[in-house]
Design goal:
Elements (H helix, E strand, L loop, with lengths): L16 H12 L9 E4 L6 H13 L5 E6 L2 H11 L5 E5 L11 E6 L11 H10 L9 H11 L1 E12 L9 H7 L2 E8 L12 E10 L4 E4 L5 E4 L9 H4 L15 H4 E6 L6 H4 E3 L11 E5 L15 E4 L15 H7 L2 H8 L18 H4 L3 E5 L1 E2 L5 E3 L5 E2 L3 E6 L5 H8 L2 H10 L1 E2 L5 E2 L2 H5 L30 H4 L2
Parallel strand pairs: 1-2, 1-4, 2-3, 4-5, 6-8, 12-17
Antiparallel strand pairs: 5-7, 6-7, 8-9, 10-18, 11-13, 12-13, 14-16, 14-18, 15-20, 19-20
Length: about 475
């Protein structure tokens, strides 16, 4: 049957057939399938996993358990029901898996739970989920709650296979989920290629869990295809060191202080959602745009052979120092440029325009917290490396992370420490892995980096009063800054 176009739905990420077939094989691996058993896909979408199960049944010449699919979105549930053409072994239900527990338990559960950040939930939804789920802590994501509910309705001895982002293996908000999973046998953890879902970068990860007493080893499959066996920690500790290959106690500093203790900001750089509109080569910048331009750097501009930050690009910024978007009529020639039909059309195609003015950045930049002496690093590199922006005038873009200590006097020794042996050893064990052995440096990991006591100052408030900063406090025009 020809595929039909389904409008974008919050949290729904279509699963490629190749991945579906692989997950189905993991679901039944080493098991005799009993047609009297029950199988659940708790967020079945348009029925991709159910179709994969039917393909497996035909190829293996084996009967399937009775299949139940639950889908919150009526449009997707209708497509699934239509495509499955009334198969008597399949029952697709339109319902909310997180709010209504199924009346029966299941021997098998498989799926691709919706990825919905807490930032996309309203206050009522957050409170409701926190009351219902012990894994709804911190900045939780709905897929974490799917794990909890699925394990609740999984029969003892049953098996669960989910594909989700790998983030739950190390973020603080998923500590409760890791603690829950550690009470069962996590049979296998498999890193998938970054491009598994096409251009949608989710850092996908397959988890296979059996509802039996914990204590058994876990098989790890890396993105390079190598395998090894580990013993996951009990409780909510991060799994990152073990997943990254640690087999020994590291010799890094243990003071109780972390990078987040001494920093105002540890964050990803500015996301405009349209760098092609806002970023220019410095030499190509029209003269009348100079008042709105600031030097900017992307991850690819950070060169390991050069210890200082060098940039030849500038970013046009329509914001005041405190993050207020300037009125279009106050932007002069910059505003006229933005309202050109082809430029405006490009900006209107961004997802952020549903909640922001059409010329706003994807994320609001608080300039007074960025334009300060800081440390920069690439988001993905062979190994984490750090560069000084002594002047503080450079704007990091979304492929760059920036670190702003409360006390500007420690920025240079701190950068030295980050590039030193102790910090590098810790980062190698605790940062995410990208393809081909590269390391993904993210704020969640950086914030947890142990810091020597010598860096811990008594300063616990910003050196700049955000309320009193004006745009003219942020430095001279761009041509003077980058000269």
């Amino acid at each position: 049957m020809a595929s039909r176009r389904i409008r974008p739905i919050k949290g729904f990420v279509p699963t490629p057939d190749r991945l579906v077939d692989h997950m189905v094989s993991l679901l039944f691996e080493g098991r005799e399938v009993d047609p009297e058993e029950r199988l659940l896909d708790p967020g079945c979408g348009d029925g991709a996993f159910v179709k994969g199960l039917l393909r497996w049944s035909k190829a293996a010449r084996s009967r399937l358990p009775a299949i139940t699919g639950i889908e919150l979105n009526g449009q997707l549930a209708l497509h699934a029901t239509s495509d499955l053409q009334g198969n008597p072994r399949v029952n697709v239900i339109s319902g909310d898996f997180l709010r209504t527990k199924p009346p029966r338990k299941f021997h098998y559960i498989i799926g691709n739970p919706p990825y919905v950040s807490i930032l996309l939930l309203d206050e009522h939804e957050k409170a409701e989920y926190r009351a219902l789920y012990r894994t709804a802590t911190g900045r939780f994501d709905l897929y974490m709650l799917f794990f909890e509910r699925a394990l609740e309705v999984l029969e003892p001895g049953g098996r669960l296979v989910f594909v989700t982002p790998e983030k739950f293996t190390y973020v603080n908000s998923a500590a409760a989920l890791r603690a829950l999973l550690s009470t069962y046998h996590v049979r296998k953890l498999e890193f998938l290629p970054d491009d598994t879902f096409g251009e949608l970068v989710t850092y996908p990860f397959v988890t296979v869990v059996e509802k039996v007493r914990s204590g058994q080893a876990t098989r790890i499959v890396t993105r390079e295809g190598t395998e090894r066996t580990v013993q996951l920690p009990r409780g909510g500790a991060s799994w990152a060191p073990l997943l990254n290959g640690s087999r020994h106690e590291l010799n890094y500093v243990r003071t109780g202080h972390t990078l987040s203790t001494i920093c105002d900001r540890v964050s990803c750089g500015i996301a405009t959602g349209a760098d092609g509109v806002y970023v220019f080569e410095r030499d190509a910048l029209p003269t009348n745009f100079h008042p709105y331009a600031r030097p900017t750097v992307a991850g690819r501009d950070l060169d390991a052979s050069r210890p200082s930050v060098q940039t030849h690009s500038v970013m046009l910024v329509p914001y005041e120092a405190d993050g207020r978007l300037m009125p279009l009529e106050d932007l002069g020639p910059f505003g006229e440029y933005l309202t050109k039909p082809h430029i405006q059309a490009r900006l209107l195609r961004r997802t952020c325009v549903s909640r922001k003015p059409w010329y706003a950045f994807h994320e609001t930049p608080f300039m007074s917290r960025i334009i300060r002496p800081k440390i920069l690093c690439k988001d993905i590199a062979r190994r984490p490396s750090f560069w000084l922006d002594r002047s503080g005038m450079t704007l990091p873009r979304h492929s760059t992370y920036y670190i702003v200590p409360w006390d500007e006097s420690i920025v240079e020794p701190l950068c030295e420490y980050l590039n030193g042996k102790q910090a590098q050893e810790w980062l190698a064990e605790n940062c995410q892995r990208a393809a081909n052995g590269f390391v993904r440096t993210q704020s969640n990991s950086l914030k947890c980096l142990p810091i020597p006591s010598e860096f811990v100052t008594r300063a616990r408030s910003p050196l700049i009063s955000m309320a009193n900063v004006r745009s003219q406090d942020l430095g001279p025009p761009v041509l003077e800054m980058v000269a």
